[in-house]
Specification:
The chain is mainly beta and 272 residues long. It has a single domain (5-257), classed as Single-stranded right-handed beta-helix, Pectin lyase-like (Pectate Lyase C-like, 3 Solenoid). The protein is built from four helices and 18 strands. A six-stranded parallel β-sheet has the order 5-8-1-10-13-16. It has a four-stranded parallel β-sheet with strand order 2-3-6-9. Strands 11-14-17 form a three-stranded parallel β-sheet, with no helix packed on it. The longest helix is centred in the N-terminal third of the chain and has 6 residues, at 29-34. The chain starts with a strand and ends in a 15-residue tail after the last helix. The relative contact order is 0.19.
């Protein structure tokens, strides 16, 4: 998973978790677009045309001039990145790039990894965990797709968190620092039986408390889960245009929508 993700001046693809069925009523808007295609592995760039939300359609990430790069080596050497590693593909492959992963792997980043504009990290079909001690950083970049990785801490940027299922967190379900803006919409929260039932975590820095914009709309809460808002918190409006807007499913359907969240279990030429 991504341990921390710094976000500034970024357009990014909203990722909605997958279901393992193909009935239209039980697929989110992203899955309806690409998962019925049995040849999705050969048509990975379809994902860019399926995108919705703040970034709109990510067509700048496909077409001529895109380098296809596959991660085959989970090691990380910040000083001398080796071919086949994630760091090599993200930093030394120039221009537009679409990065995939050959197999299940865990990547421990030893230094922060800067993600540049027009980069796609596509984790579909495998289980990839990216962890610390360092982090992914997206700074002054646009047209970045990160698909299939868990993001739990937002800094600086804006996130629309929609149709996710959270159960039994230890410290928090949604966290952030450095005055981010977060809209939580139609998510399903089940608090742990004991311990902290507050959903959000906000790391305040001196003088930034009035800048926080965390708010909840149409979320569903169980077992005492609560979404606390602090003084000064206002609504984070996405201001979506026609190409960005999408229908968010009812929160009570989220358990079914996310029943197979994680790496997709399907053969190379099968419908997922």
């Amino acid at each position: 998973m991504v341990r921390f993700l710094n976000i500034a001046l970024i357009q990014f693809l909203i990722v909605l978790f997958a279901a393992n069925v193909l009935e239209a009523t039980e697929l989110n808007v992203m899955d309806k677009c690409w998962r019925p295609n049995p040849h999705w592995r050969r048509s990975r760039n379809q994902l860019a045309r399926c995108s919705v939300g703040f970034a709109g359609k990510m067509t700048g990430n496909i077409g001529k001039g895109v380098t296809q790069y596959k991660v085959t080596n989970p090691s990380d050497d910040p000083l001398n990145p080796k071919p086949g590693t994630l760091r090599y593909g993200a930093t030394l492959v120039k221009g537009k790039k679409w990065i995939t992963f050959k197999r299940n792997m865990k990547i421990n980043l030893h230094k922060p990894l800067l993600i540049s504009s027009f980069t796609t990290l596509d984790g579909r079909g495998v289980s990839v965990h990216i962890s610390g001690p360092a982090c992914l950083i997206v700074y002054k970049a646009t047209d970045v797709i990160i698909h299939g990785l868990k993001i739990h801490d937002l800094r600086y940027g804006y996130a629309h968190v929609a149709n996710n299922y959270y159960q039994g967190w230890t410290q928090y379900a949604i966290g952030g620092s450095m005055s981010p803006r977060v809209k939580s919409e139609s998510n399903y929260f089940v608090a742990p039986k004991s311990g902290r039932k507050e959903i959000t975590w906000k790391k305040h820095n001196k003088g930034d408390q009035m800048q926080w914009k965390f708010y909840s709309v149409n979320d569903y809460f169980e077992n005492g889960a609560c979404f606390g808002l602090h003084k000064g918190v206002g609504k984070a409006r996405p201001n979506y245009g026609p190409s960005q807007s999408f229908t968010v499913a009812n929160a009570k359907t989220v358990k079914k929508l996310t029943s197979s969240a994680g790496a997709l279990q399907c053969t190379r030429n099968s419908i997922c």
